[in-house]
Amino acid sequence: MKGHRSWHFVPAHRPEYLEKALEIAADALVFDLEDGVPDGEKDDARTRLAAFLKARRSIDHGRCYLRVNSEPTAFRQDLGLLQRWSFGGVVVPKVDTPGVLRSRMKAIERVTSAGRRIALIESFGAVSRLGAILEAWPLYGVGLGLEDMFSDIDLLPAQAGDLSRHVKLRLVVEAKARGLVAIDTVSLEYRNRASLARRCAESRCLGFDGMFSIHPNQIEVINAAFSPRPDNLVWARKIARLTSLRGGSGYSNEGGEVISPPKVRKARGILGRQGGGR
Predict the structure, then answer these.
(1) Are 114 and 235 part of one and the same domain?
(2) What percent of the chain has pLDDT over 70?
(3) Do 18 and 134 reside in the same domain of the chain?
(4) What pLDDT does residue 228 have?
(5) What's the domain count of the chain?
(6) Alpha-carbon distance 141 to 32, whole Å?
(7) pLDDT score recorded for residue 101
(8) Both 214 and 238 in a single domain?
(9) What's the pTM value of the predicted model, to 2 decimals?
(10) What is the CB-side half-sphere exposure of residue 73 using CA atoms within 13 A?
(11) Within-domain flag for 261
(12) Do residues 77 and 192 share a domain?
């Protein structure tokens, strides 16, 4: 997989969206069978997605994810797609308890062991149990779904800034403590690029690695926000150059720059993200 900056939801019941998906410069394409698909069109979505994948066997499966359903019957039907087709990973929604995560992951493992696993945290109950949830199964990343979560309170998004920040920081800290990728919730803003860019910058400063998207217009802004800044790249290359000159580990002073092991790790991390990779 190229990277983890932009995770684009593609509603599987819309043939025109499936056709355009491969032209989108998102790091991950999340073919959606859940919230993005009306209840009466779930079967059609599976059929259309299967036909799409069959016709395009040469696609980069590593960047293709499947968001399965949370409703038990629909989830069991989704497993058929995972068994028949290769995906880079699975996005599991509405993970409210450790038991829910284990149950769904065991069912997924019975049909495929390939791919990364992403858990979506979409309720206040899940936030309260977040540490236990993330310990319940080996994950690649954890994503946030504030739209579902905040549907339980009578505050508009603009009025819930403090609560949103608290939830986001909690998720980032728990994810970083376990070496997981942290993915921020979708933004409904896709027309005003400046507004979206501010939102992405705030997310990046909170420590998120990437963000979900719902419109192609959002991809370029998200990728730019979650890529290393040019000045940070210059600094990281300088540290890498000085490190190669001195060799070894420990602290030293090279060219007026104090070199420390944590600083070297940070520089390597920045350079590793340069192409969108982890």
Answers:
(1) no
(2) 85
(3) yes
(4) 73
(5) 2
(6) 17
(7) 98
(8) no
(9) 0.85
(10) 3
(11) yes
(12) yes
Record the tokens describing residue 63, joined without a space.
Answer: 């960047």
For 256, the domain range is: 230-272
pLDDT(182) > 50: yes
| pLDDT given at position 245 | 45
Q: What CATH number did the domain enclosing 116 receive?
A: 3.20.20.60
Residue 93 located in a structural domain: yes
Condensed to tens digits (0 to 9), the pLDDT of residues 114-147 reads: 899 999 999 999 999 999 999 999 999 999 999 9
Q: Which two tokens stand for residue 140?
A: 């690649």
What span, in angstroms and rounded, lies between the C-alpha atoms of 64 and 95?
Answer: 21
Cβ contacts of residue 140 below 8 Å, gap of 6+? Answer: 89, 116, 117, 118, 180, 181
Token output for 133: 């949830």
Beta strand 257-259 pairing with 252-254: antiparallel
**pLDDT at residue 269 in the model:** 65
- CA dist., res. 278 & res. 32, Å (int): 24
Cα 110 to Cα 132: distance, rounded to the nearest angstrom: 23
Q: In whole angstroms, what is the distance from residue 168 CA to residue 97 CA? A: 18
Residue pair 67/34 in contact (Cβ under 8 Å)? The answer is yes
CA 140 to chain CA centroid, nearest Å = 9
Quickly list H helices, the chain.
15-21, 42-55, 72-84, 98-111, 124-128, 130-135, 146-149, 161-177, 193-206, 219-225, 230-246, 261-272
Q: How many residues does the chain have?
A: 278
Q: Considering the domain boundaries, does residue 278 fall inside one?
A: no
CB-CB contact of 186 with 212 (8 Å): yes
Going 48 to 217 to 29 to 179, the CA torsion angle's sign is negative
The predicted-structure confidence for 60-111, as pLDDT tens digits, reads as follows: 888 999 999 999 999 999 999 999 998 999 999 999 999 999 999 999 999 9
16 and 144 share a domain? Answer: yes
> Is there a single domain that holds both residue 24 and residue 126?
yes
